[in-house]
Amino acid sequence: RIVIITGVRRSGKSTLLRSSIGNSDKSLFLSFEDPRLEGFDMSDFMKVEEIAIQTQKKYLLFDEIQNVDQWEKYIRSANDRGIHTYITGSNASLLSRELGTRLTGRYTQLELYPFSYSEFLLFRNLHPGPESYREYLNTGGFPEYLTNHDNSYLRQLLKDIIIRDIAVRRNIRNESTIVKLAVHLLSNIGKEFSYSNITRLLEISSVRSTIDYCDYLKESYLADLIPLYSRSIKKQIANPKKAYCIDTGLARANSLSFSEDKGRIFENAVFMHLRRDHDDIMYYKDAKSECDFLVRMNDNILLVIQACWHINEDNLQREILGISNAMRESNAKEGMIITFNQEDELQGIKVMPAWKWESLKQQKNN
Hints:
The protein is an alpha/beta fold.
């Protein structure tokens, strides 16, 4: 009876909610982004119920419900009384701290992302191929940006995420520090960083604050941080992380250097394709080699991926060595090199264009 849609701000959660259920004359829709609902609290939920009963509404739809303190108590109570509720939120903690303690096993979850490449093709009425994929790398998948192509929209979106989904929620007065941190991470996609180095570089008050701010960026779906692969949890925690953005267009519009580095934007797109289905992703590095992504499920590495814009004589052996060492160390059975537009098999490793690789998932789903 509880359906929860979460995801980054402006990814289409409200649209999905209203188009699937909200158009029904049996539903009552409230958006807690509406300034008229400022100050809404637990007691007001009962007033909403009274209105729903008077108007014979069967479904209650609450948009951006994380803006209401202790909302989860009401949702559980409503569920116990047989009321159907559909809620959205722009914070990943909706699915962890609040829900985990009060609504375990009582809800259906849908995590919504900006458009994937396949969804982008449908939205733009394009065909799979290198040219459409190049366009996707540049624009990303936020629906409204694909309509207006206004970079200021993506820059404002970053500020809205940080102010509304982090600063207000966490009662942080100086959001400029988090903005600087976000821009730094988006400008250094796929590069190793340590919390201590970032703390010194950005003059953040403490390493603890930096860790917290990075956690908040992840909770808001803006950025994802992946650890170094190791069988030791302590080593995973202690070693440098790598950051990736929820959307290549958002990263490009807010980065100080990202738009000039097609390899980084490409790597980010490959990561996000993996992230849609897997939440346990790491990178590999030893004294002689590196590998971009190791995908783990149930303590086993399922897949090892190198993201390489173009394979040539200069980087071939480096890419092969990295993926081979990662597969051997992790006991992975499958490894691939994803490129922009090359297809081959090199030393037993499959090489596939990203546009074809990302289209295969849609074909399988159909």
